[in-house]
Amino acid sequence: MRWRAGTERTKRVLDKQNLRVALEEMRILLIGLLVGVAAGLIGALCGVGGGILMVPAFVLALGMGHKHAVATSLAIVVVTALAGTANHVIRKSELIDWKLVACTALGAAVAAWYGTELMRNLGNQQLSRIFGVLLILVGVRMLMMKAA
Fold first, then answer.
1. Most CB within 10 Å of its CB: which of 48, 70, 78, 118?
2. What is the pLDDT of residues 22-78, one digit of tens each?
3. How many whole angstroms separate alpha carbon 49 and alpha carbon 100?
């Protein structure tokens, strides 16, 4: 009898631990889904890959290190960009300048390859500061632009 009672107590403790783990995983998945929806919408509307929203969200809401958030965001941006581009191609929108895509993509791919090497050599705090300064500079520049 005593052994059985101890086993039941152990099961209850394990069930609570499993529940905590499951709830944390659900929280991460829900935040990821919401960030993905927002990033996809902003990406489609503003022509950004969504990393501008995903990186801060992953760092602040999920507690990821900046390096982890950047690498995860890059992987997601591939999917986001493919989906948006596919929509333009299927709808024959003729809004994509393919010559510019070819030239820019070549330079961007080379820079991204070496940029990821540089990113791995910088600290999370350094990356967060670079990202923050970039956001401020771009935001100020956009606010100062005259309407086209």
1. 70
2. 888 888 889 888 888 877 777 777 667 778 888 889 999 999 998 999 999 999 989
3. 17
- Amino acid letter at 129? R
Q: What does the DSSP assignment read for the chain?
A: -HHHHHHHHHHHHHHHHHHHHHHHHHHHHHHHHHHHHHHHHHHHHHS--SHHHHHHHHHHHH---HHHHHHHHHHHHHHHHHHHHHHHHHTT-----HHHHHHHHHHHHHHHHHHHHHHHHS-HHHHHHHHHHHHHHHHHHHHHSPP-
